[in-house]
């Protein structure tokens, strides 16, 4: 009997590491790669958060020491910036600015949720003439810059004697003018099975019953997203209040922050500016924490429930 032999050398002679060495080495490489990725992410996170941290630290420094150092740590801290910024100098009362922004933002969120959800339900579930054309025109408004409609809207509100009131900043939200949120809700509602609608119709529910009892509970993620971004956009809006509100008692937070800067080259209250800017972030952070789960969760409950 003859035995077959090959000229291929064993694996060890070809320079390949033993099997156990390869098994042990692979996890070490993965750990090294994971550590490197986390290190890069930490560096990027620090670079992104540094301006915010510097602003918070600067809000506790005296006005003449704010720009002397780019560091965060300091030996001289004071709360005068928060006291002076909040109370202002009589005309500039920042507590009034906060109240004005909260009123406008809250009413805008309510208006957007009502108008956009009803409009989205109509486009997603109801049939009516020129439905596709109207929906295309609605989406076409996304291509229009805000400044294109600014002058016509100002003329309209001026003729209605609504300048120096909150109405120009709130009323458009009750007319489903935010096409992006309408489109967001339409896509979400279309993903819901129509069998739920049919089951509700068998039980005698009409469009209003289907909308309130079926669609709204299942569309909470889209509703939460709409509420969050509406609040952020309204709270940070600078151009709208600057255009419609000339009375300082009606100013919002962004306009109030701008009042701390002296455009004539005089003395600007940077300490009070940074202090009030830090406080102005609190409602945004709180609103985001309250609605963050709705941003990432899908439909958590079934139609049977």
Keywords:
0% strand, 13 helices, MetI-like fold, globular, 2 domains
Describe the structure.
The protein is 63% helix and 0% strand. It is built from 13 helices and no strands. The protein has helices at residues 19-58, 80-87, 94-125, 131-140, 150-159, 167-170, 179-190, 195-202, 207-218, 220-235, 239-244, 253-258, 270-296. The chain is mainly α and 305 residues long. Mean pLDDT is 83; it is low at 298-305.
List the domain count as a whole number: 2
**pLDDT averaged over residues:** 83
Number of helices: 13
Largest sheet: none
Strand content: under 5%
- Helices and strands, in order, run as HHHHHHHHHHHHH
Evaluate the radius of gyration.
29 Å
Protein structure class: mainly alpha
What percent of the residues sit in helical stretches (DSSP H or I)?
55-70%
Can you tell me the CATH architecture of the largest domain? Answer: Orthogonal Bundle
Oligomer: single chain
How many angstroms does the end-to-end distance come to? 76 Å
The best one-word shape is: globular
Q: pLDDT under 50 segments (min length 5)?
A: 298-305
The CATH superfamily of the largest domain turns out to be: MetI-like
| CATH fold-level assignment of the largest domain | MetI-like fold
The beta-strand count equals 0
Report the CATH C-level class of the largest domain: Mainly Alpha
């Amino acid at each position: 009997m003859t035995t077959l032999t090959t000229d291929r050398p064993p694996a060890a002679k070809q320079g390949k590491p033993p099997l156990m060495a390869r098994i042990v080495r692979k996890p070490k490489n993965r750990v090294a790669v994971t550590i490197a990725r986390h290190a890069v992410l930490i560096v990027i996170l620090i670079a992104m958060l540094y301006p915010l941290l510097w602003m918070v630290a600067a809000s506790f420094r005296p006005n003449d020491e704010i720009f002397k150092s780019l560091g965060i740590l300091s030996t001289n801290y004071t709360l005068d910036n928060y006291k002076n910024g909040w109370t202002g100098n009589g005309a500039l009362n920042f507590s009034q600015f906060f109240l004005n922004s909260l009123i406008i933002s809250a009413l805008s969120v309510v208006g957007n949720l009502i108008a956009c959800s009803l409009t989205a339900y109509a486009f997603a579930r109801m049939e009516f003439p020129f439905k596709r054309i109207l929906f295309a025109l609605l989406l076409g408004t996304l291509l229009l810059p805000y400044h294109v409609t600014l002058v016509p809207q100002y003329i309209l509100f001026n003729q209605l004697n609504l300048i120096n009131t909150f109405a120009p900043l709130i009323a458009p939200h009750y007319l489903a003018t935010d096409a992006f949120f309408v489109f967001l809700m339409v896509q979400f509602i279309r993903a819901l099975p129509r069998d739920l609608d049919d089951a509700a119709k068998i039980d005698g529910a009409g469009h209003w019953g289907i909308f309130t009892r079926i669609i709204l509970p299942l569309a909470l993620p889209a509703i939460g997203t709409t509420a969050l971004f509406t609040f952020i956009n309204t709270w940070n809006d600078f151009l709208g209040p600057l255009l419609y509100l000339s009375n300082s008692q009606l100013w919002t937070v962004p306009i109030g922050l701008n009042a701390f800067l002296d455009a004539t080259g005089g003395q600007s209250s940077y300490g009070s500016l940074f202090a009030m800017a830090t406080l102005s972030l609190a409602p945004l952070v709180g609103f985001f924490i309250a609605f963050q789960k709705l941003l990432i969760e899908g439909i958590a409950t079934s139609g049977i429930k």
